[in-house]
Structures are given as structure tokens and as C-alpha cells.
Amino acid sequence: MPELPEVETTRRMLEPRLLGKIVRDVVHSDDSRYRNTVAMLGKQILKLERRGKYLILRLDDGLDVIVHLKMTGGFRLPTETHFLEVPRFERLRLVLHDSEVSYVDSRRFGFWEVLPTNQWAHIKALSEMGPEPLEAGFLLKPFQVAMAKVSKVKPALLSQKPVAGVGNIYADESLWLAKIHPEAKQLSAVAAKRLHSAIIEVMGKAVAAGGSTLSDNSYQQPDGATGYFQFEHQAYDRAGMPCSRCGAPIEKYFLAGRGTHFCPDCQKR
Ligand SMILES: [Zn+2]
């Protein structure tokens, strides 16, 4: 699933192609998954924002378009002014006054919803989301308070409530960097501080690297390039390989249904 670094990379690449453009058409055949897109017609795209793993297009006339890429959603840009062919797994095409942008999603879990500005209360994942890790609002103290109460740290991070945008890959990487076991409970203030710093460091580096493209190749940048952060993974997808800190083999097991990677020597319970 695209996490913060992949969604932010997508946002940065789409932004110059979308800002100021007028929506001429939104072509798709699934009104239940891409809801109320008719309201976008004739509107101008004023901003392209990201919140956690969500993209938010701000349109004029007080409308927001919420896009969640879920497992395999992504965007593809034309190389010139028009597509020469339809990208594989295209589900929706955004027709602008001078160009087109394609939305692809092989597994079709992603969704779009057009709403009045900031009327997100019914999307609990958005309305209850914690602070952005790469913004000044990610304060240490409230994070320490939240971490002091956790029963298992990794599932708590994945809930998006202590901090936004951390999914399975970046939870494993941040916990490895902070030397904290995925099932650690009631973190000390010192451990929570290490984790806070680790999340900021991992997310910053992953955004700079354009995110992570895994072996399934489902995530690509909108221009078709891969991300590069997979080459910097220290724990995720490295089961059996030596920990770069201590040499012990990285272990993998399932925690709350998610493949979880950690160093048994550096990340003791
Ligand atoms: Zn280690």
C-alpha cells in the first residue's frame, strides 16, 4: 500500500500538471467507487494537498476531491500532451482543458469522493488522523504520552492516530532505527523520543528517494519511474539477511496480520 512517502512523491509530481487546470471530464464506469465526480466538471484545481496517505484536490466553488490509493492506486502522466495508449489498469481518466491524467488501480480498492470543503467527518480515517510527521505539528510530548499507553507499538503506529502516514514498511523501518521491538508496550519517554526521531528521519529519507517500489512493482512514480528507498530498507523485506548494525539475521513474523520484520538482537522485547 502506498504510504506517506509514495503519496507525497505522487503529489509533488502531479502538482505542476494539475494546478490551475480546468476539469473538462472525469471518465470512469464505477459511480460507487468514484463518487460524485460529475461535480468536478468545469471546476478549477486550486491546490493539491496530502494528508497521511490521502491526496486532496482543492477545487474552486468550495469542493474537495478525496483520493485514497489504498493497495494499488496510482497516477500516470502522459509523456507529451496526450496519451499514446491507455495505461494498464486504468480506472479513471481526468480530462483537463489542455492535458489528461490517468488513474490506475489493479486491485480496485482505491476510491475518490467529491465533497464540500473540509466535510470529512464521516471519513473517520481522515478526521481522527494524527499529526503529519514531517511538519512542525508532530510534537514530541503528545507522542510520548500516546506511546506510554500503547499495548503493542507497531499496531498503534499503523492506526494513524499517534502520527499520520506510517504504514507497514515505514513502521518496520522506524522501529528498527529506534531499536524498539514491534510488540513493545508502554514505551518510556526515552524510547518514545528515539522513535519520534526515527519516524522523522525515515520518512524524510523515503520522500527524498521517491518512496519504495517493491517486487510486485505496483507503486510507480507518475512518470513511470520506480522509487528508490527500497534499496535503503534495513528491516522491511529483509528476512534472513544480516542486520546492518549487528549482523544477526532479520526475522519476519506476522503481527496483527501484517508481515513484520525486525532484528532479534537490536530490538529486544
Ligand atoms: Zn541488529
User: Which percent range describes the beta-strand content?
Assistant: 15-25%
Percent of residues in helices = 10-25%
Question: Which structural class matches the secondary elements?
Answer: alpha+beta
- CATH class descriptor name of the largest domain: Alpha Beta
Annotated CATH architecture of the largest domain:
Alpha-Beta Barrel
Under CATH, the homologous superfamily of the largest domain reads MutM-like, N-terminal
Overall 3D shape: globular
- Largest beta sheet, briefly? 5 strands, mixed
Number of strands: 11
CATH topology of the largest domain: N-terminal domain of MutM-like DNA repair proteins
Count of DSSP H/I helices: 6
Strand order of the largest sheet: 2-9-5-4-3
- Radius of gyration from CA coordinates: 19 Å
Which ligands appear in the coordinates?
zinc ion
Give the number of domains. Answer: 2
> What is the residue-averaged pLDDT?
95
Order of helices and strands: HEEEEEEEEEHHHHHEE
N→C terminal distance:
27 Å
Low-confidence stretches: none
Description:
This protein has 269 residues and is an alpha+beta fold. Helices cover 24% and strands 22% of the residues. The protein contains six helices and eleven strands. The strands form three sheets. Strands 2-9-5-4-3 form a five-stranded mixed sheet, with helices on one face. A hairpin with a 2-residue loop joins strand 3 and strand 4. Helix 3 packs across helix 6. The longest helix is centred in the C-terminal third of the chain and has 20 residues. Zinc ion binds next to loops.
